[in-house]
What we know:
alpha+beta; Tumour Suppressor Smad4; Rossmann fold; Helicase, Ruva Protein, domain 3; 4 domains; six-stranded mixed β-sheet; 20 strands; globular; disordered N terminus
Amino acid sequence: MYYVAVGDAQGTTLSFHEDGKPGRLGPRPEPVLVLALECGRPRAGSVRYRIGDLTGITLGRGPDRRSERGGTELTVRVPDKWMSSKHARIEPSFGRWVLTDTESKNGSIVDGHTTKRAVLTDGSLIELGHTLFIFFERMPIEPDAPPMLDLAAPVNEGAPGSEPAGFVTLSPQWTQELARLRQIASSEIPMLIEGDSGTGKEVIARAIHTLSGRGGAFVPVNCGALPENLVESELFGYKKGAFSGAQSDHPGLVRAADGGTLFLDEIGDLPASSQAALLRVLQEREVMPVGGTRAVPIDLRVVAATHRDLDDMVAEQSFRHDLFARLAGFRVTVPTLAERRTDIGLLIGALHARLFPAEHPGFDIDAARMLLRYPWPLNVRELEQALTTAQVLARDQPIRAEHLPDSVRTGRPPGAPRPVVLSEADQKVRDTVVAALREHQGNVSAVARALDKDRKQIQRWMKRFALDPATYR
């Protein structure tokens, strides 16, 4: 059972935006507590609590998970036998938030250290029994957002009336982007999904197809995996006898998506020689098979994705600007897993449900701590691979540290970039970005505004100089 008794409404101040400075409309940075993961019940979901107007949060064991608010006090109960009924309390103190262990038998752990009292910092990982919480000091929240956002049972994705895979999140920024995606999904507007490898771009594309209501198939095409000499025949099909080996007519991948969605993954890898042919298909809404004499009309929705910077490629003339214009009717950037740390427990729960039987006992606390502290540079794909391996090793036993990859156990990601010697100009740029990240506590959007640059430019610089915004929070 999940419920919350809400007292007075949250503040409705509209004169703040992400960096907390007055004068512009937008989200207001607030302190937030996330109940990320119950080790014994990883599928129970996660909860986000807005705590900015509270005078205290009491955390302890209860018969079921519930959150009760009375006035400015919040009580959170979790059915964790390793927790005490009055385990810990979090209170504001002189502009900071302090956790105090109250009457626990097993102690309270903050960022890996057992403590009786600890000042929480942004991103602090809190362990009470076998339940993990994450504290966020400044999370941009829309004033009309609910005081508690409960995403229980995230594994029901795909059930009637549930959110499609990839559309479940506790991240306020990603929530806003997903709301825009829902609006666009049912239209014919082409979409360009950008983001690092492993962030789940194809999952988002499939969700868009589901939400579109189109009756045809979802046809994924990895443009980078098609041999350059076979791109056009694979995409557009061919007629019998068009070339040696063409023993029969082949409709091609584009026609297979007729009435549905054509997903062009890694569109930045499409050879220049094939870009013009694809452009014609998108312009004319018809496809000419190799060796054919009559074009075939098609009805499809195109969603493209790439981890490459198409803006730079267009500027360098390695990607056609007219094709880019046809593909980028609506653009969305999928955040990295480090940028949506609020969702790590939800993702673990969803993957656990997919990979393990319902009766699986879940996680050992040490393994859970490692999963939530690891930076996941290869994003959701890396997390999925880690749990897939753990499933084979753990079988019907709880997942322990020994079942996880070495990189997760040590906290040292593979292939970390080596130091490079920067030019004087590059060093000045890096110093400027580092200073802004420190000032704005790793908030990339706030840094972009402060430096009067596009957010994508800040992300390019961070990638180039191997800067992780999470380290500045």
